[in-house]
Amino acid sequence: MRAVSGGEVAGILVAVFWAILVSFLAVALVRLAQTLKATTKLVADVTDQAVPLLADASAAVRSAQTQIDRVDSIASDVQEVTSNASALSSTVASTFGGPLVKVAAFGYGVRRALAGRKADVPVKEPRRTVIVGRTVPAARRKNRGK
């Protein structure tokens, strides 16, 4: 039997350490490859599901834009009708408003004049008076002043 030198023992230890390191690296690479496969499959599945969703979202946005255009058209029509109604109202007010006010004032004056000529009786006091939100009968009102 031959004696093993220190350098040979060191070489064997380095070789064993190197083999263990390569084994760990091989296991890590296999797991990394599995992770990359799973990630690739996940990305493919997400892409397959996202494309139809994006198409649906795009269709919904187009439909909403069409509805907004319709509402905008309706709003502009309503604004035009409102301005026409305002113009018509001001025209009617200026045409009939002045004469109607004059007729009403004349009628009020005639009533007042006829009421004054009709009776030379002084105007009666009202039967009830409101004091702080309550109605007080005339009899109590007279006693209140004493």
Structural notes for this entry:
The chain is mainly α. 82% of the residues lie in helices and 4% in strands. It has two helices and two strands, in the order H-E-E-H. Strands 1-2 form a two-stranded antiparallel ribbon. Strand 1 (129-131) and strand 2 (134-136) form a beta hairpin. The longest helix has 113 residues, at 6-118. The protein is rod-shaped, with a radius of gyration of 51 Å.
What's the helix count? 2
- Number of E strands: 2
Give the strand line-up of the largest sheet.
1-2
Rg computed from alpha carbons, rounded to a whole number of angstroms:
51 Å
Mean pLDDT: 83
List the helices and strands and how they pair.
Elements: H1 6-118, E1 129-131, E2 134-136, H2 138-144
Antiparallel strand pairs: 1-2
Features:
146 residues, mainly alpha, two-stranded antiparallel sheet
Give me a quick take on this structure.
This protein is mainly α and 146 residues long. It has helices at residues 6-118, 138-144, and strands at residues 129-131, 134-136. The mean pLDDT is 83.
